[in-house]
Specification:
The protein contains four helices and six strands; from the N terminus they run H-H-E-H-E-E-E-E-E-H. It is of the alpha+beta class. It has a single domain, classed as Thiol Ester Dehydrase, Chain A. Strands 1, 2, 3, 4, 5 and 6 form a six-stranded antiparallel β-sheet that branches. Strand 3 and strand 4 form a beta hairpin. The radius of gyration is 17 Å and the shape is globular. This is Thioesterase family protein. Pfam families: 4HBT_2.
Length: 169
C-alpha cells in the first residue's frame, strides 16, 4: 500500500456520502479551470466553505435573527484526493464528528459525482462565539440540540477517524 492509499483509506464509500443531504450540487464551470486543466484550488475551498456554512445556517446561525451569536473557525485541514475537471458534477456532504459545549469538529466531503470519487475533504473545528464580547461561549440550547441531531444523522457512517497531517520524507 502506498502512502497515498493509506491517506485515503479512511474515506467512507461514495455511496454512503451520497446518502447524506447535499449542501450544494453543481457542474464545474469553465472559469474554475486552472493552468493544469483541472479545478483551481480556490474553488475546492470555496465550495467546501459554502457547504459547511449551509449546515451552520440550518442549525440556527442566522445573523439577522441572533446578531450576538456566531461561529469562528479555529482549524481547517484541506486534502485533495482526486482531481475535478470542468463540466463534471460535484456535491458537498458535511459530517459532524463530535462536539463539546463550545466546539464542534467535522469534515466536508466534495464528491465528484461524474467519476464517483471523493475529490477533496475539508476537516474543520469551529467554536460558538458570543459576538458581543468576541469570545467562545457554550452553544445555546437550540443550537446544541440541532448539533446533536446532525451528529445522530451521521452516526451510520461508523465514526470517521481522520488521519493526521501527511508526513514528509
Amino acid at each position: 500500500m502506498t502512502s497515498s492509499d493509506a491517506r485515503r483509506e479512511w474515506l467512507p464509500p461514495v455511496a454512503e456520502l451520497l446518502s447524506l443531504p447535499a449542501e450544494l450540487k453543481q457542474a464545474v464551470p469553465p472559469e474554475y479551470e486552472d493552468l493544469n486543466g483541472h479545478m483551481n484550488i480556490q474553488h475546492y475551498f470555496e465550495l467546501q466553505s459554502l457547504a459547511v456554512w449551509g449546515v451552520f445556517r440550518r442549525i440556527g446561525y442566522e445573523h439577522a435573527q441572533r446578531p450576538h451569536e456566531g461561529a469562528f473557525t479555529l482549524e481547517q485541514h484541506l486534502r485533495y484526493h482526486n482531481e475535478v475537471l470542468v463540466g463534471q458534477e460535484v456535491s458537498a456532504h458535511v459530517v459532524l464528528l463530535e462536539r463539546t459545549d463550545k466546539v464542534v469538529r467535522g469534515v466536508s466531503f466534495l464528491v465528484n459525482r461524474t467519476t464517483e470519487q471523493v475529490a477533496n475533504t475539508l476537516e474543520f473545528v469551529s467554536a460558538n462565539v458570543d459576538l458581543s464580547v468576541r469570545r467562545t461561549s457554550p452553544f445555546p440550547e437550540r443550537i446544541a440540540d440541532a448539533l446533536d441531531a446532525e451528529l445522530a444523522r451521521c452516526a451510520h457512517l461508523g465514526g470517521i477517524t481522520t488521519p493526521g497531517p501527511p508526513r514528509l520524507r
